[in-house]
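User: I want to check something. If I give you two sequences, will you return the structure for each one separately, not as a complex?

Assistant: Yes, each is folded on its own. Here is the first sequence with its structure:
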Amino acid sequence: MKKLLALLLALCACSGERTAPTDADSSESTGATETLQADGLFVSIGLLPQNAPFAALAALDDAGYFASDERCLTHTPGVFVAGDCRAKSVRQLTTAVADGASAALAALRYLRLAESHA
């Protein structure tokens, strides 16, 4: 079964391909790299949005945050955003966790709908 999501705590590089995103992760101690195939990923960006590498995937607002609604949907079908990378008024752990739950449920609905039309 394909991986649906990859949770990456440290993103080193991302190919940015919409059809098959990958992440090249490297070990600081050994320098070894590993490429992970994933159908999606969550990115931890810190206090300032670092969304520019992903701008081709979904629209950004003037401040560099992903434009989305409260369901964490973007205008790009199949692309969901959660946490501090999306435009919102409060940036706290509790709201990021809630965003993650909303995005996961939205992604599940999207996958079920796609499966029913296949």
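And separately, the second sequence with its own structure:
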Amino acid sequence: MLNWGAFTFPKNQSAAETKLEMINAGGQVCLVQKRVRFTIKTIDQWCSAFRTFVAAYCRRFPVDSVSLMTYMNQVQTVARQAGVAAAIYYDEQFRKGREQNPARHPWDVPDEILYI
């Protein structure tokens, strides 16, 4: 399952917070910025990451674009009604179910068990 945090970047990261690592690239030692895992804490961050995912996903599956926007609305509704933690939990559990059985978990149909 994809971690939506991989689609976001901390906005106010200073040079002092930048982590570097050495890698061997074709016999040469290079310093590269180490990718810091970002945890989503707000619905705005989740939406930003999800929109990035949708842009990539819809290049391969353009017919799913409306369903994905419906799904985003469902997650936002959960966040308004039950809080961000509940929305993130709903999203993670829904996507786990979708990985196991995509036909049983279409993007535009709320999971009744999770949605309650």
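Because they were folded independently, the notes below concern the second chain alone. The radius of gyration is 17 Å. The beta strands are 20-25, 28-33.
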